[in-house]
């Protein structure tokens, strides 16, 4: 039992540290350039969606990407209309983390760690090299943490009370959504929650079908970070945060009736890889909800503008 606790705590700590370094490094590498290039740019919804996907792919955190987007609205760089598709794209971009973890490329983690360390200790005036090294170290620690976490969770599949809880969650998807929401709200990271779920599915502590509702909850729970970040912002910033919450909640509502078909599709795509099944499920439902909601996002924006009134609604292009 002590070994389980040690491996889980060590693995989770390294994962969180890696995610932190990765996020900080990439945020500093691209955020200033992103703001400079976006200002005054004519952004249509599809370009906005693509920007959201790419930004979150680099940051490896939908929360960080969305907070940056909220900041762009707050700074007057972008309008609510322009930033909403970006927020939708952020949900797709964050699924790359799960896909990377599913590849189980932890064997290259020491190489990433060493490369990053070398970049950070080289004495140079090039700050980007240091940030790149920090990013590589973060990625290396992330994969090492995931490997340790997987080893630590392996014995949990034999714990009877945990099995009963997971069976209950599998039978009642709504409980899974609540569990996912609570987890993401507490740890302030849906990516970490997804990584934990993948480790649990690989160790057979939970089935993929029981894990999918938790994924939906994680998607909603990650909005808490953005909402907290918007507390001291103007109404424009608050609008962007609320749109994030509405989009993720509507996404869960849309996908909820199709949980079993989603699970079956994931099994067909990756029949022998549990981690990849979960990663595909994560990607599929985020892509599906974006396809459904992107055409009606102006209506969502209009509703939010009606709820939080400050300036007249406009389709800024």
TrEMBL record:
It is found in: Cell membrane. The keyword Cytoplasm does not apply. It is a multi-pass membrane protein. It comes from the Bacteria. InterPro entries: Na/Pi_transpt. The keyword Magnesium does not apply. Signal peptide: none annotated. Pfam families: Na_Pi_cotrans. Keywords: Cell membrane, Membrane, Transmembrane, Transmembrane helix. Its main location: membrane. GO terms for cellular component: plasma membrane. The chain crosses the membrane at residues 6-29, 41-59, 65-89, 101-123, 129-153, 174-198, 210-229, 241-259, 284-308. NCBIfam families: Na_Pi_symport. This is Na/Pi cotransporter family protein. The lineage of its organism: Bacteria, Bacillati, Bacillota, Clostridia, Peptostreptococcales.
